Amino acid sequence: MTVLRVENLTKRFDGVLAVDDLTFAVEPGEIFGFLGGNGAGKTTTLRMVLDIIRPTSGRIEVLGTSPDRRNSAAIGFLPEERGLYSHMTAIDTIVYFGRLKEMDAKLARERGMALLDRFDLGERARSKIGDMSKGMAQKVQLACSLVNEPELLMLDEPFSGLDPVNQGLLEEEILRASRRGAAVIFSTHVMQHAERLCDRLLLLRKGKKRFEGTLDEARALLPTRIAVVARPDIANVTGVIGATASDEAGEGWTHYELQLQPGTSSETILEHCTANGIGVRRFEEHRASLHEVFVELVGDAGVKQ
Ligand SMILES: Nc1ncnc2c1ncn2[C@@H]1O[C@H](COP(=O)(O)OP(=O)(O)OP(=O)(O)O)[C@@H](O)[C@H]1O
Predict the structure, then answer these.
(1) Same domain, 212 and 84
(2) Do 64 and 156 lie in a common domain?
(3) Where is the ABC transporter domain positioned along the sequence (predicted)?
(4) CATH number, residue 71
(5) In terms of residue numbers, what domain contains 233?
(6) Does residue 295 lie within any of the structural domains?
(7) How far is CA 29 from CA 1, 8, 75, 184, 246, in A?
(8) Residue 46, ligand 1, Cβ within 6 A
(9) Are strands 31-36 and 57-62 parallel, antiparallel or unpaired?
(10) Are residues 200 and 250 located together in one domain of the fold?
(11) Which of 219, 254, 278 is the last residue of a domain?
């Protein structure tokens, strides 16, 4: 069953169209990147899925029903604004969240301890949240969103505030959730996480969908660039629509950046050169990164390299 289905979703605040006719779906086991610059409408969409705010129009279906308390036990959510009760211990906090998700306290405690161990916080299980560092508290909050082994896991900017080691732990946890069949949606401004993790991604700009598809499909939106050292006749190869010369490389060789006709692969160009005796000394393909696609489609506001 499709875990999350969003159809023609629109949210208007006074004078602001935060989400504009948005449609997408996420399947079990999928890792879905929800990307967009600041103010694109990501958090607003996630809040509507959680029934924290209501849509102006459109439809949301979570595990086959409209969002409400009935399906909250099957959802895990890490909010963008972190915040836990500072006087509670780490393990009690996780158990508390587990109980809110209708879990048995014993099971919540067992899973909570296992999560804290995996997050390298086993020895801090009885520390108060207020005595922990910000990153540690964030990992406890992440554990709260995972304790019920949700079928839909939504993480709003989960990587921000974590050091590289803990970012790695989080990536591992996202993959683990997906392997057990959960649909995972996460928002981020850091494209490398999306590049490493996502099966599919959606790019939002000012509440509107600019792209939805796989990473390969996203990268194919921008032309592949090829750096070559070649003779000038490279410009006449079928499929090459531009050859920008940079430096001389001596003895009649020149550095070029080739622009290819859309749909032409770099292999075709290389084969053509070989077949027609066109001299090529260096041939480096540069496929567009997700960062470049993002900047092209969404603008560079709010993107970190
Ligand atoms: N409660 C609200 N009242 C009025 N406007 C709101 C409210 N919540 C969000 N907005 C507006 O809706 C738009 C989308 O905001 P949202 O928080 O969903 O963006 P976001 O993609 O999560 O951004 P960021 O990456 O900066 O967290 C913004 O223009 C924001 O000011």
Answers:
(1) yes
(2) yes
(3) 4-231
(4) 3.40.50.300
(5) 225-287
(6) no
(7) 11, 24, 14, 7, 47
(8) no
(9) unpaired
(10) no
(11) 219
Domain-embedded: residue 294: no
- Quick one: which of 256, 242, 189, 222 has its CA closest to 34? 189
Q: What's the CATH code of the domain at 251?
A: 3.30.70
244 and 278 together in one domain: yes
Question: What ipTM goes with this model?
Answer: 0.97
Assigned token pair, 253 = 């060789």
- Ligand 1 within 6 A of CB of 38: yes
Q: Are residues 71 and 158 in the same domain?
A: yes
Phi and psi at residue 296, to the nearest 5°: -65, -45
pLDDT tens, position by position, 129-188: 999 998 999 999 999 999 999 999 999 999 988 999 999 999 999 999 999 999 999 999
CB atoms within 10 A of CB 258: 25
Tokens for 47, please give them: 């809040």
Does the C-beta of 301 come closer than 6 Å to ligand 1? no
Chain segment 191-211, per-residue pLDDT in tens:
889 999 999 999 999 999 999
Q: Which atom of ligand 1 is nearest to the CA of 46?
A: 18
Q: Ligand 1 centre from 296 Cα, in Å? A: 22
Domain boundary among 169, 186, 219: 219
Substitution site in 9, 14, 16, 186 for ligand 1 pocket (most atoms within 8 Å of beta carbon): 16
Is the pTM here over 0.90, yes or no?
no
Check if 13 has its Cβ closer than 6 Å to any atom of ligand 1. Answer: yes
